[in-house]
Design a protein that fits this description.
Number of domains: 2
Strand order of the largest sheet: 1-2-5
Shape: globular
Helix content: 55-70%
Distance between the termini: 18 Å
Largest sheet: 3 strands, mixed
Number of helices: 9
Order of helices and strands: EEEEEHHHHHHHHH
Strand content: 5-15%
Length: 366
C-alpha cells in the first residue's frame, strides 16, 4: 500500500510506502521537511517531549498558489490549484531526512556492529576524508592557541622530573585555553559530524560543507557539553568522598559511575541533533532510549575500550623494541588508527542510536 499526501508548502501530491507513516521526509519539489500521515489517515504520534500540534484554526490558511499577487492580477507562472494533482513518488534516498517519532527498540550487539560495518563499507571513504579534514583543522587551531598563550604568558615551561608547583602553575593558562578550545570547537564540529552521519545513514548525499553545519545546534550542544562536565565533576566529588574512606572504594565508585553514565547519556548528542531539542530534553530522551538498552550499550562500549587497549599495547611494544624508530612508527600508526577508527565509531553510534529509536531503515531496505 502507499500513502498519498500533499506538501503543505508547494501543494504537490507525494506518495510513499505505508511503512513510512508517522515519519518525516523532505519534499523533492520545495525541500520542505513534512510530516507523513499514518496509513489509513490517522495522526502520527508526537515525538517524546514535543509540543502539541497547533490548531488548524489558530491562523488563516495560506493563500492558494497563484493568488498572492495584487488584486486583479494572477501569477500565471504558479501552479493552478484546480488542475489535476501530479503525484511524485519519493525514493528511499529522499526519506526520512528528519528525525521521526522515537519508538524505543532493543537491537542486539551483533545487529549494531553488523549494520555499522555495512554503512562504513558504503560511506567509509567519505567519513575518512571528513575526519582527516577535521583533524587537520583541529591541530591547526591547537597550534594557534598554543602560540597565542605562549606569547601572552611568557612562553613554554619545560616540565622536568623535579618540576615544582610554580612550573605547573605556569602551564595552567595553556591547559585552560586548550580545554576552552576543545569545548567551543568540539561542540560546533560534533554537531556537524552527527548531522552529516545522519544524512548518510538515511540515504541522502550530504555536501562536504555540511560537516560545518553545526551552527544551528551550537548553543544547545555547548549547553549539553557543560552539563556533561557537571555530571563528571559530580562523580569525581563522590569519588573524593569515598576515597577518604578507602582509596580503592573511591576508584571503583568513579569507574562504575562513569560507565553507568556513559551507558545512559551517550545518545544525548544524537537526540539533540536528531530531534532538535535543548540539552535538558536531550538528556531525558537519552534516559528514555536507555530503557532496555543498557546491556547493549555497555557491551558496545566495552568492545570499543578493548580495541583501544589492544592498540595501546601495540604502541608500547613498538616503543620498547626500538625507542627512536618505534616512537615514529607509533606516531604514524596512531594517526592512521585515529583516522580509521573514528569514522567507524561515528557510523557505529549513529546506527545504534537510529536502531534504538526505531528509525533505522535505510540499509535494511536494499
Amino acid at each position: 500500500m502507499a500513502i498519498d499526501f500533499n506538501c503543505p508548502q508547494c501543494r504537490k501530491t507525494l506518495r510513499v510506502g505505508d511503512e513510512y507513516g508517522g515519519k518525516q521526509a523532505q519534499c523533492p519539489s520545495c525541500s520542505m521537511v513534512v510530516q507523513i500521515p499514518l496509513a489509513g489517515g490517522g495522526s502520527p504520534p508526537q515525538p517524546f517531549g514535543a509540543s502539541p500540534a497547533p490548531s488548524p484554526y489558530a491562523a488563516s490558511p495560506p493563500a492558494a498558489p497563484g493568488y498572492g499577487a495584487a488584486p486583479g492580477q494572477y501569477d500565471y507562472g504558479a501552479a493552478n490549484p484546480y488542475s489535476a494533482p501530479q503525484t511524485q513518488q519519493l525514493s528511499p534516498s529522499q526519506m526520512p531526512l528528519a528525525g521521526g517519532p522515537i519508538v524505543v527498540t532493543q537491537p542486539t550487539v551483533g545487529e549494531v556492529f553488523g549494520e555499522a560495518w555495512r554503512m562504513f563499507q558504503r560511506h567509509g571513504l567519505k567519513l575518512f576524508l571528513a575526519m582527516l579534514v577535521i583533524f587537520v583543522i583541529s591541530w591547526v587551531l591547537l597550534f594557534i592557541v598554543g602560540m597565542v598563550v605562549a606569547m601572552f604568558f611568557g612562553g613554554q615551561v619545560a616540565i622536568q622530573p623535579q618540576a615544582g608547583p610554580g612550573d605547573l602553575k605556569a602551564l595552567l593558562p595553556f591547559i585552560i585555553s586548550i580545554y576552552i578550545l576543545l569545548l567551543l570547537w568540539g561542540s560546533f564540529i560534533h554537531s556537524g559530524m552527527i548531522n552529516y552521519a545522519f544524512k548518510l545513514c538515511r540515504g541522502a548525499e550530504p555536501q562536504f560543507g555540511e560537516l560545518f553545519s553545526g551552527g544551528r545546534y551550537y548553543l544547545k550542544m555547548l549547553g549539553l557539553m557543560f552539563l556533561f562536565l557537571l555530571i563528571v565533576m559530580g562523580v569525581a566529588i563522590i569519588m573524593g568522598l569515598l576515597s577518604a574512606i578507602h582509596p580503592i572504594l573511591g576508584l571503583m565508585a568513579y569507574v562504575v559511575g562513569l560507565i553507568y553514565i556513559m551507558m545512559v547519556i551517550w545518545s544525548a548528542p544524537f537526540a539533540l541533533v536528531d530531534q532538535n531539542v535543548g540539552p535538558i530534553q536531550a538528556l531525558r530522551l537519552a534516559d528514555k532510549i536507555s530503557k532496555g538498552n543498557k546491556l547493549t550499550s555497555f557491551l558496545v562500549l566495552l568492545l570499543i575500550l578493548l580495541i583501544y587497549f589492544g592498540f595501546f599495547v601495540v604502541q608500547i611494544a613498538l616503543i620498547s623494541m626500538a625507542p627512536r624508530v618505534g616512537g615514529i612508527l607509533s606516531l604514524i600508526l596512531g594517526l592512521v588508527f585515529a583516522c580509521a577508527i573514528t569514522p567507524y565509531l561515528l557510523s557505529l553510534f549513529t546506527v545504534m542510536y537510529l536502531k534504538m529509536t526505531g528509525q533505522y531503515a535505510q540499509i535494511e531496505q536494499d
